[in-house]
Design a protein that fits this description.
The complex is a heterodimer of chains A (about 350) and B (about 500). Chain A is built from 13 helices and 2 strands. By secondary structure, chain A is mostly helical. Chain A has a two-stranded antiparallel sheet with strand order 1-2. In chain A, helix 3 packs antiparallel against helix 10, helix 3 crosses helix 11 and helix 8 crosses helix 9. The longest helix of chain A has 30 residues. Chain B is globular, with a radius of gyration of 24 Å. In chain B, a hairpin with a 2-residue loop joins strand 19 and strand 20. The termini of chain B are far apart. By secondary structure, chain B is α/β, with parallel strands linked by helices. Chain B has 3 domains: about 230 residues, P-loop containing nucleotide triphosphate hydrolases (Rossmann fold, 3-Layer(aba) Sandwich); about 180 residues, Rossmann fold, CATH 3.40.50.300; about 80 residues, no CATH class. The chains are: A mainly alpha (about 350), B alpha/beta (about 500). Chains A and B meet through helix 8 and helix 9 of A and helix 10 of B.
């Protein structure tokens, strides 16, 4: 009788995450094609249309990248928190609270210099995201409550707060009864760089390098890795594991909050339920596919931004936008499965 | 009548490139106690795991009652009456004694549990209510329940893997009597694995000796063989490395004054009035059965645990209220008992693990230089001959010996003034043990003050200048190594102080 057993590979190819993403993406395209074929649509036509409308011109490319900003920033936040082996499922709520914080500061302060004003508002967004994860962070560090549950639950709370604000105190009388807060003034709109590309994308590039440095090149990153590897080793090394976890959570939440601020200042221009269309959840997929690598998150986030733009335009030829979601989710599945084969090898063990 | 109840012929087994067993023969006579002697890593446990069906041999055959067994898996081995007690307990802690004993579907005392329990409690001199939960039992009691479990599932061949490792000398004596009665009265066939000569001599009728995966002596009569013969078989041409103890000692490097430590959860006094002093160039051994406060003492001296009363001085500097980092700055090194999990962080790369001690020395503000850490690791690998092919690979891809060398290297490379080494050689093969002993002695000669905590008396006698014995959180006895007698130390470990 033959048995098959798993062995962990001694060395793992550095680019394995990239390869598994590529293979996962190909698998996802195949799955998407099959679904399209079942619906009597030509996959090649559909995908080439998606490609053309998402990256075919400066305008479409810039809307794709704009879409990628919240995915990348929230994904970076998730990856920082994951350095201490914690999961942030609350990026969605952090995005909303970031936007709420921006509006709150906007309403309550007055600045003459618009650039400085925008800077303050972006900072407010970051702080808003940190505040959103504050309770999960405290309960995690003090009582050891599972952060997956608490960050997830804060999403619902923040969403409830948003609904309350836009139907109540912040409701815009001019919105024809549509639940939304009033628009912010044009002086605080984020400028565009090329075409429709928001200045937020440059912030995004900057923060990608910040996250990369923090995770991979800094002492703090090293301390987070040790704390995440073993709390006992951290204590032994004189590293305050709880403090690292707490700080990592606040920074990670802040990244997502910043995403909310940029979304408000460059896209929606007001607080509404449209601040995020599940960006915080898609960001988890983005971060997981890349094995929590900031540079990878930047690339995959950009691709996923293009996918959702492509997905939304193919409605015009009668294809559901869900095809983009299917591709995103299948990419994760495919990539995780392929990653497994990079990490382990299967050997046949002979009995008798 | 059949000659052997169990016969294993030409068993071979390898793990990766390591040959764990090579053409091993092993046979047992019904109703006798057999000893299986060998150093750590000689292949004793592998052989037992094959007999109990956990590993499959690559070559060889196993006969039970003269019937060839095609392939043994744990279930069929258990049906054939082969039972094993592993080194780590496999009891369900939250279940009662009765539940643990009757858990197996092979249980033969379903209806008359009480009767059987009383009978075997008497044999094992165990006086515990079977309703009691395993959690509440002492280590010695748990060991008895483990062995009883085999009886309850009708195992007639009982393989005991170092059952005495966790026992005090007195409990060991007790176990000997119990096992003798089992072999006499119940005709149980017993295999006792050990690397302690005295036990093999006291417990067994027949003895097998293994070395480096080979059976170097089969079926010797214990009464006919001398200790010297056994040692030579077990160690090969043994050169008992005599370590020169006449080295110069210097000033007091570490001094510990009346440490008291109470566990906040259980409110139990773990350490009581511990005082000790170590001079430069001196190794102070701490002997004791584990669980008598050694881990806590090491944690307190190294600064990991700070909720205690008492004083600690390194180089005459009071560090009692200082944390890990400032003690490290005074050049204290700690090699913790728990290699992977405390000393090294699992799931983290070899590179990261190599700088755990000194990273705060080499940092540039918030920046951690990759090239500097790489050079640092390379120097460790060279200096301590560590086999670590991929610095980015997870630490657990290294072998136990290489992990320990990395840990020791990391802690010793900066010539520490004070070293706390807790069970530094546990679970390592002979070569690795020798290498680590050499490291410690070299360090001693360079003027370090070393606190060596170990359960291995041979190691303590070999390395230490002085010995303290810990029992129930106290230093109950102190010896100069020249006047120390292994029996007295053993007695003190069991709490017998005349």
């Amino acid at each position: 009788m033959n048995n098959f057993k798993l062995f962990k590979r001694q060395t793992v190819n550095e680019l394995s995450t990239f390869y598994s993403f590529l293979i996962g993406f190909i698998i996802a395209i195949i799955i998407g094609s099959i679904i399209l074929l079942i619906q009597d649509k030509n996959p090649i036509d559909t995908f080439s249309l998606m490609l053309r409308l998402s990256v075919g011109s400066v305008n479409s490319l810039s809307s794709s990248l704009n879409k990628a900003i919240p995915l990348i920033l929230a994904g970076l936040g998730i990856s920082i928190i994951n350095s201490v082996k914690l999961w942030n499922i609350g990026a969605e709520g952090q995005i909303f609270l970031g936007a709420i914080a921006v509006n709150f500061i906007y309403i309550n302060t007055q600045f003459n210099n618009p650039s400085f004003h925008i800077l303050v508002l972006l900072l407010a967004g970051f702080v808003g995201g940190s505040v959103c994860i504050l309770i999960p962070a405290i309960t995690k560090v003090v009582f050891g409550v599972n952060e997956i549950i608490t960050t997830l639950l804060t999403n619902y709370i923040v969403f409830g707060v948003t609904i309350f604000l836009i139907n109540g105190p912040w409701k815009d009388p001019k919105s024809l009864n549509f639940p939304a807060a009033a628009y912010v003034g044009e002086e605080v709109f984020l400028p565009t760089v090329i075409g429709k590309l928001s200045f937020g994308f440059l912030i995004c590039i900057l923060f990608t390098f910040v996250a990369h440095y923090l995770k991979n090149k800094s002492v703090f990153g090293f301390e987070m890795r040790i704390a995440g590897g073993s709390a006992m080793t951290a204590i032994y090394a004189g590293i305050n594991a709880k403090q690292k976890a707490f700080i990592a959570m606040l920074i990670g939440g802040g990244f997502a909050g910043l995403a909310g601020a940029i979304e408000l200042l460059s896209q929606t221009h007001r607080v509404s339920t449209g601040i995020s269309q599940g960006f915080g959840y898609t960001a988890i997929i983005v971060a997981a596919i890349t094995g929590m690598r900031p540079l990878g998150i930047f690339l995959v986030g950009s691709l996923f931004g293009a996918l959702s733009i492509g997905g939304s335009v193919i409605q015009t030829i009668g294809v559901s936008t869900y095809i983009a979601d299917i591709i995103q989710a299948s990419t994760l599945f495919g990539a995780l499965i392929i990653q497994f084969f990079f990490t382990y090898q299967i050997k046949r063990v002979e009995n008798d | 009548m059949k000659k052997y109840i169990l016969e294993a012929k030409n068993i071979s087994k390898s793990f990766g490139n390591v040959k764990a067993l090579e053409d091993v023969n092993f046979y047992l006579q019904k109703g006798k106690i057999h000893g299986l002697l060998g150093e750590n890593g000689a292949g004793k446990s592998s052989l037992m795991n094959i007999l109990s069906g956990i590993y499959q041999p690559e070559k060889g055959s196993i006969y039970i009652n003269d019937i060839k067994q095609k392939s043994l898996d744990p279930e069929s081995a258990s049906e054939l009456g082969i039972g094993m007690v592993h080194q780590e307990f496999r009891l369900i802690e939250s279940f009662s004694i009765q539940d643990n004993l009757t858990l197996s579907k092979a249980n033969i005392y379903q209806d008359n549990f009480k009767e059987a329990y009383d009978k075997y409690s008497e044999i094992f001199s165990l006086s515990v209510n079977p309703e009691k939960k395993i959690v509440q039992l002492s280590v010695g009691e748990k060991q008895k329940i483990e062995i009883m479990k085999l009886i309850f599932k009708n195992s007639n061949i009982m393989l005991l893997d170092e059952p005495t490792a966790v026992l005090t000398p007195q409990e060991t004596d007790q176990l000997r009597i119990s096992l003798e009665r089992l072999s006499d009265e119940d005709e149980k066939t017993i295999v006792l694995i050990s690397h302690k000569l005295r036990e093999i001599r006291d417990f067994t009728e027949k003895v097998f000796v293994m070395k480096n995966g080979k059976m170097v002596a089969e079926d010797l009569s214990t009464v006919d063989v001398t200790d010297d013969d056994l040692v030579e078989l077990m160690m090969g041409s043994m050169q008992k490395s005599i370590i020169d103890k006449s080295n110069k000692t210097g000033d007091t490097k570490l001094s510990v004054e009346s440490i008291e430590y109470i566990d906040r959860v259980s409110n139990y006094k773990i350490l009581e009035d511990i005082s000790l002093e170590i001079k430069a160039g001196e190794i102070l051994g701490i002997a004791g059965v584990s669980g008598n406060g050694q881990v806590e003492l090491a944690n307190i001296i190294s600064g990991v645990e700070i909720d205690y009363s008492g004083k600690i001085f390194i180089n005459n500097k009071d560090v009692s209220r200082k944390g890990v980092k400032s003690r490290k700055k005074l050049n204290l090194s700690y090699i913790p008992e728990n290699r992977l999990g405390v000393g090294l962080a699992p799931g983290v790369s070899v590179l990261d693990n190599s700088i755990v001690r000194d990273y705060f020395k080499t940092r540039l503000g918030p920046h951690l230089s990759r090239s500097k850490t790489e050079t640092y690791l390379e120097s460790l690998i060279k200096k301590f001959s560590i086999k670590a092919p991929d610095s980015k690979a997870e630490i657990s891809t290294l072998s136990g010996g290489n992990m320990q060398k990395l840990l020791m290297g990391r802690e010793l490379v900066s010539n520490p003034e004070v070293i706390i080494a807790s069970q530094p050689t546990r679970g390592l093969d002979v070569n690795a043990v020798e290498a680590i002993h050499t490291l410690l002695v070299d360090q001693r000669d360079k003027g370090s003050a070393i606190l060596l905590i170990s359960e291995d008396l041979d190691e303590l006698f070999k390395l230490s200048n002085r010995l303290h014995v810990m029992y129930e959180g106290k230093i109950v006895k102190s010896f100069d190594i020249d006047n120390a007698d292994i029996n007295n130390v053993g007695l003190a470990m069991a709490g017998v102080i005349e």
